[in-house]
């Protein structure tokens, strides 16, 4: 099954799909309307928010975003890996890790040194792919893990690219 990762800025036709996923998986019942989520998903050019969409055989099966803010009680932390979602029929195939790597690469290309995420249920997944838990906390009556990932510097990425060419 051929895979490709594109952004919604490259493929704005995918924004309604990602808006629906974001609404159903993360925003429904949290005080935001679907229209608000859809408007944010269709945001214009710029480094953030940036949503990567994984296509399998040309069909969208998952998404992950680079966002300036994602956790209201922590406005001091930025940017965030946010909205990691894989459609139920496509889970268990490594798609989440592919999407996270794509967002990390986008962030590294922007010179971002550190990213953040919070999760209630996927701490082990993120730990396996290099994220580390820095805090456990309660939010809206539920327990979460706050995690961080230090990204390679632009100069380190350039060194790795040169080494691959050897």
What distinguishing features does this structure have?
166 residues, alpha+beta, Aminopeptidase, 4-stranded antiparallel sheet, 3-stranded antiparallel sheet, 5 helices, globular, disordered C terminus
What does this structure look like?
Residues 5-152 form the N-acetyltransferase domain. GO terms for molecular function: acyltransferase activity, transferring groups other than amino-acyl groups. This is N-acetyltransferase domain-containing protein. This protein has a single domain (3-164), classed as Gcn5-related N-acetyltransferase (GNAT) (Aminopeptidase). Helix content is 32%, strand content 31%. The protein contains five helices and seven strands. The chain has helices at 15-27, 34-41, 95-109, 123-128, 154-164; strands at residues 3-7, 50-56, 59-67, 80-86, 114-119, 132-139, 142-150. The protein has a four-stranded antiparallel β-sheet with strand order 1-2-3-4, sandwiched between helices. Strands 5-7-6 form a three-stranded antiparallel β-sheet. It starts with a strand and ends with a helix.
Please summarize what this structure is.
By secondary structure, this protein is α+β, with helices and mostly antiparallel strands. It has helices spanning about 15-25, 35-40, 95-110, 125-130, 155-165; strands at about 5, 50-55, 60-65, 80-85, 115-120, 130-140, 140-150.
